[in-house]
Amino acid sequence: MKILSWLIRFVVFFALLMLALNNQQLVTINGLSGMSWSLPMAWLLLATLVLGAALGAASMLPKLIQQRRRAHAAQAAMTPTIKQAPRDELGI
User: Fold this and answer.
1) Burial degree of 40 (CB within 10 A; 0-12, 13-18, 19+)
2) pTM above 0.85, yes or no
3) What's the mean pLDDT in 19-32?
4) pLDDT band, residue 26 (cuts 50/70/90)
5) Which residues 6+ apart lie within 8 Å of 72 measured at CB?
6) Three-class secondary structure of residue 40 per DSSP
7) If we measure between CA atoms, which residue out of 20, 38, 17, 21 comes closest to residue 29?
8) Integer Cα distance of 14 and 22 in angstroms
9) pLDDT tens-place string over residues 47-56
């Protein structure tokens, strides 16, 4: 199973490498007010992937924090609290 996993990783890496090497032509991005950028398509695809992953992770962050708070609160509610006896009951 480990060999199959590494084989799949190699195939995906090789396919992405070929995609990047075959997309070296310049792409012009036209922005607002006449601004434009020219960069290779492979870099544009990489930047788009990184931006999408960062936005996806940032959008999940509030829900993750809320779930962690609820889990900690539930765990705190499940742990028994130890009551200390008053000093006079202990004979001190």
Assistant:
1) middle
2) no
3) 86
4) very high
5) none
6) strand
7) 38
8) 12
9) 999 999 999 9
